[in-house]
Each structure stands twice: as structure tokens, then as C-alpha cells.
Design goal:
Layout lengths: L1 H8 L29 H10 L13 H25 L8 E8 L10 E6 L2 H20 L16 H17 L3 E7 L10 H10 L4 H11 L2 E8 L5 E3 L3 E3 L9 H10 L2 H4 L5 E5 L2 E8 L2 H21 L10 E5 L10 E3 L4 E5 L1 E4 L2 E4 L5 H21 L5 H16 L4 H4 L6 H14 L9 H7 L4 H15 L7 H4 L18 H4 L2 H10 L3 H4 L5 H14 L5 H8 L2
Parallel strand pairs: 1-4, 9-11
Antiparallel strand pairs: 1-2, 3-8, 3-9, 4-5, 4-6, 7-8, 10-11, 12-13
Helix pairs in contact: 2-3, 3-4, 3-7, 6-7, 6-8, 11-12, 11-14, 16-19, 16-21
Length: about 550
């Protein structure tokens, strides 16, 4: 089985070759990557690595590496400097063991497993040094496109979702048709062509020794699959040379992939917007005319398809989907996308980075799915209540309830009127934890337990997003030079569409502007802002935005 898996993971070729360099748009002539490092920097990197007992083929774990740090930092610094100055990555650090990670579907189908590489601990240290130099250069030269949100500092799944949803909402506000095309790529990390990647790095200015180092890092790599039988006996495949791809589980691999796919958004810049999170590719098509909307969709998919062929990547059209968005006053238009490989139609909902998006952005399906999970959490708390203290119950609450509803994405779906079902479950759990009947008010119980209401957590998460990503939320003083008492307020866009008013941009601005001055003035100090705002929301147990506006207007 291990030998069959390694053959499946190692692809000989991916698709037809067409010159991909024609898609690049900017040339940097000389590399400016600083290759030298210091003993102090190596020491910091070694100590920053998480302690794990897992290891590569050399059986040296990060735990052992960190214990040995005082004795090996100086020679490791010398070796690292030699690697960076000569552009030669050691062959013995290019061997990795692969553990198949099951994704979904038939577990006996090898294509449903993702290969996770376990590299040597020493390789991670050298990769981190190289990563810092490469990322700094790309960031300093502003070479990475803004459409990419994966594996980047100051970007996240939240910024990706905000970019996609805000683009759609603004289009609907202009009475335009809007649709999202989601492209699923086949084994994208394993299909990265080394020659194309090195050409792109050189084109962006990573040339000379730096380019030689990247070439030495990605070529002549070997891997083998490791499995364990039911008796925990180790089963290994033969070592196989990797001719394509970047190693998954590595430090440098994701960044090199971002460079590889970096020019994709420019390909369709004149036809559509795009939002990328690593290999998750979303194309947003907007147009006021139905016929032009269909034509633009066809052009965007054709241009994108050509780019993928040119870069030796393959689209999985069986999993590619199209979703049209519309408000109550718009009608869904029939649209059918035809490619050389398949035909796919407009659907009613789709997944995006853990969210379920529907055509009217009502969040009904997403909230329904959350409700099913939260009912199970409620049952669990009820079952353990007789045996646990309040302190332990709060820990369970934050683990099973809070982590599901309040740690991810509430800024997007927290304004939906369907959240009333989640609010009822939260009240039920609060009453269980405090031995209260279903008719007792929860206002004082939230204060007693120091647990925010659903609406309180929505406001807290939303405003923390606003102050963290202020570039999305300009001040009035940034828009005009008139001196008014509202200059320090965020600039509020004009819209009459309720769907837009419930979005993150409009809601975030309105809620922030209504904050008490004592809290608003702390917006440049995130830690104190969060503490002050949380105390304010605990003091005022809020169940609706109207209650919030009433409290802040006093």
C-alpha cells in the first residue's frame, strides 16, 4: 500500500506546456535579499519552533533540537551562512517522510489523501531563515497581489471572506448581477513545475545565488510514504525522486506556491475580480446586463483555464461550482457554463473557507448547520452538570459552544435574523449552568458568569476586525478636508439596500461610530480597546443592535 501511495503522490506530468511567462507583468532586475544572518537570529528561530516529538527520517525531533540548542547554535549558524552564500541546499536535508492525511470520500481511494511531509528539524531552521529573507523581499518590492490571502502576514480567512462578500454586496448595491465561480484544483502543490517556478522567481528579481538556492532546495528531493499497521509496525515505501511540486508541511513550500500562482489574478483583471486563499480560487463576475454577464463569465473561465494549462495545473471541473447572488428585487438568471471538459450549472449554495454561502446571503443554511452542532453542545453540558463545578462548566462552554459560534466568522453571519435560534440555545445553556428555569431572565446570569451574549460577542469581534484592518475603514478626514466634529468617525458609505447595511463594512462603521468616546479613543491600542469594550458589553447585556444604539445614545 505504501508503494502505491508514493506512486499516486508522485506525478510524472500534469498537463500541456504553453509559455507561462507571458502572464507576468513586472520585472525586478536585481535580487536584494540579505543572505547573511547572526548567531542571535538562529538562536531565536530554534527557540521559536514548537516542541514536537514527531521527526523526519533522521529521527531528530524539535524537542531534541531545542535541548541541544546551546551546543549547536554556533556551528548551525556557520552551516546556514555557507548555504545562503553558496546557494547549495544540503542533499541530506532533502529527504522527507510522507504521512497520508485523509480528506474525504472513499478512504481506499489514494487521491482522497493529502501528502504531509515530515522534514528534518535542521531543514526547518534553514528554511525559516530563507523564508524571512524571501518574504521580506517580496513584501518590500510589493510583488505579491492583494487578491492572495493565504500564508501571508496581515491576511487571513477573515480578510478573504470580507473581500469576497464586500465585492458582491457593493455590486448588488449598484444593481449589478453578481456571481462567484469556485475553481477546485487537482493536487496543486504536487503539480508545481520547477522550471516555471524558477523562471518566475528570476523574473521577480530573485536571481543569482538566491535563485540557485531555490533551485537546489526544490530539485533532487526524495520522499517515501510511512504507514503503520494495526500492530503499530512501521511500513515504508521505497525512496522516490520528486520531479514536480513543493513539499507540503515545509516552511518554504507555501510561499513558493504563492509566487507560482501570483500572476493568476492579473490574467482576468479586465473581466472579473478574484479572491485567493492559497489554492482556493474564487472568481467574482459582475455586470449590469444579463447577456454581458454570461459572456464575461465565459471569457473569465476561458482565460483562467488557459492560465492553468500554461502553468501545468489542472482544474477539477467535477468540483467546480458557480453561484449567482441576488437580492429580493432581482431575479435569478439561467446560466450554464460550458468548458472543453464539462458543463456545470448555477447552484443555490456552496462552501467557502468553512462558511456556507447561499444565493441571497441570508446565512440560513450556515446558521442551521451551527444550530445542530450547538444542540449537541447543550446536551453535553446538561449531561455533565450534576458532576461539575461552575468553573468547569464554563471551560466546557468555551470549548464546545464558544469555539463553534464565536471564534470564527461571527462578523459575517452575526447580523442575520436567523441567529435568534442560536441565541435561544445560548440562553438555554446559561440557565442549565446556573440551575434556572426556562422562564428566568438571563440578563443578570450573563453578568454572573461573565459570558457575553451572542450579540455582545458579535459587536466585540466586529470592532476588533475594524481596528485591526483600518485600511478597509477610512476616516471622514481621509475623505474630505472639512473640519467637523465627526472627522474622527469612520466614513459611512451611502446605501439603501438592507443586505449591504447588514454587511461587515457598513455595520462595522455604524457600530464603531456609536461607541462611547472613552472606548473609541483607545482604537489605536488594541489590547486596552478590547478590555474596555468587553467590560462595557458585559455591563450592558445586549440582545439586539437596537438595544446597543439606545445604550450608546445616552
Amino acid at each position: 500500500m505504501a508503494d502505491k501511495l508514493i506512486k499516486n503522490f508522485s506525478k510524472e506530468n500534469c498537463t500541456t506546456y504553453i509559455d507561462p511567462i507571458k502572464y507576468l507583468w513586472q520585472i525586478i532586475n536585481n535580487s536584494k535579499i540579505r543572505l547573511k544572518n547572526t548567531t542571535n537570529e538562529i538562536d531565536k528561530i530554534v527557540h521559536s519552533i514548537k516542541i514536537k516529538d514527531s521527526h523526519g527520517y533522521d529521527e531528530i525531533s524539535t524537542r531534541l533540537l531545542k535541548i541541544s540548542a546551546p551546543c549547536i547554535v554556533s556551528p548551525l549558524t556557520y552551516i546556514t551562512n555557507k548555504i545562503l552564500s553558496t546557494g547549495i541546499f544540503p542533499d541530506r536535508l532533502k529527504f522527507s517522510e510522507v504521512k497520508p492525511l485523509y480528506k474525504d470520500g472513499d478512504p481506499l481511494d489514494f487521491s482522497n489523501h493529502r501528502p504531509i511531509s515530515l522534514l528534518t528539524s535542521f531543514s526547518k531552521v534553514i528554511e525559516k531563515i530563507t523564508y524571512k529573507r524571501l518574504y521580506h523581499f517580496l513584501d518590500q518590492q510589493k510583488l505579491m497581489v492583494n487578491e492572495q490571502h493565504g500564508f501571508r502576514q496581515k491576511a487571513s480567512t477573515e480578510t478573504a471572506a470580507f473581500s469576497l462578500l464586500n465585492t458582491i454586496l457593493l455590486s448588488l448595491d449598484r444593481k449589478s448581477l453578481a456571481g462567484r465561480l469556485f475553481l477546485d484544483l487537482k493536487k496543486v502543490f504536487d503539480c508545481v513545475d520547477h522550471d516555471i517556478l524558477l523562471s518566475k522567481l528570476n523574473y521577480y528579481g530573485i536571481s543569482g545565488t538566491a535563485n540557485e538556492l531555490m533551485k537546489s532546495y526544490i530539485t533532487d528531493r526524495y520522499r517515501r510514504v510511512v504507514l503503520y499497521d494495526k500492530f503499530f509496525n512501521k511500513l515504508v515505501s521505497e525512496w522516490k525522486c520528486i520531479k514536480h511540486g513543493v513539499p507540503q508541511g515545509s516552511v518554504l513550500g507555501p510561499l513558493l506556491f504563492l509566487v507560482y500562482i501570483n500572476d493568476l489574478p492579473r490574467t482576468i483583471y479586465n473581466y472579473a475580480n478574484s479572491v485567493l486563499f492559497a489554492d482556493d480560487t474564487s472568481i467574482i463576475i459582475t455586470n449590469t446586463d444579463a447577456q454581458e454577464f454570461k459572456q464575461t463569465t465565459d471569457i473569465a473561465i476561458q482565460e483562467t483555464n488557459d492560465w492553468f494549462h500554461s502553468n501545468l495545473l489542472t482544474v477539477n471541473y467535477n468540483k467546480t461550482q458557480f453561484l449567482q447572488f441576488f437580492d429580493k428585487k432581482q431575479n435569478k438568471i439561467p446560466i450554464q457554463i460550458i468548458t472543453s471538459n464539462s458543463i456545470f450549472n448555477n447552484i443555490n449554495s456552496m462552501k467557502f473557507l468553512g462558511f456556507t454561502l447561499d444565493s441571497t446571503l441570508s446565512w440560513r443554511e450556515h446558521v442551521t448547520a451551527l444550530t445542530l452542532k450547538l444542540n449537541k453542545a447543550c446536551f453535553a453540558i446538561r449531561a455533565i452538570k450534576p458532576f461539575m463545578t461552575t468553573r468547569v462548566l464554563k471551560m466546557v462552554y468555551y470549548s464546545y459552544f464558544h469555539s463553534i459560534i464565536m471564534s470564527y466568522g461571527i462578523i459575517f453571519w452575526g447580523s442575520s435574523h436567523f441567529i435568534i435560534n442560536i441565541l435561544r440555545i445560548q440562553k438555554r445553556i446559561i440557565r442549565i449552568m446556573t440551575n434556572r428555569s426556562k422562564r428566568d431572565s438571563c440578563h443578570q446570569l450573563h453578568k454572573q458568569l461573565q459570558i457575553l451574549t451572542l450579540l455582545g460577542q458579535y459587536i466585540l469581534s466586529l470592532l476588533l476586525f475594524v481596528i485591526k484592518y483600518r485600511e478597509f475603514f477610512p476616516l471622514n478626514s481621509d475623505i474630505h478636508d472639512r473640519n467637523t466634529r465627526y472627522n474622527d468617525n469612520l466614513h459611512s458609505p451611502t446605501t439603501n439596500l438592507k443586505l449591504v447595511q447588514n454587511g461587515v463594512l457598513y455595520s462595522g462603521i455604524k457600530i464603531f461610530n456609536r461607541l462611547p468616546t472613552s472606548i473609541k479613543s483607545l482604537s489605536k491600542d488594541p489590547k486596552h480597546f478590547k478590555n474596555k469594550l468587553k467590560n462595557f458589553l458585559l455591563e450592558h447585556t445586549l440582545y439586539s443592535l437596537n438595544e446597543y444604539y439606545q445604550v450608546t445614545s445616552k
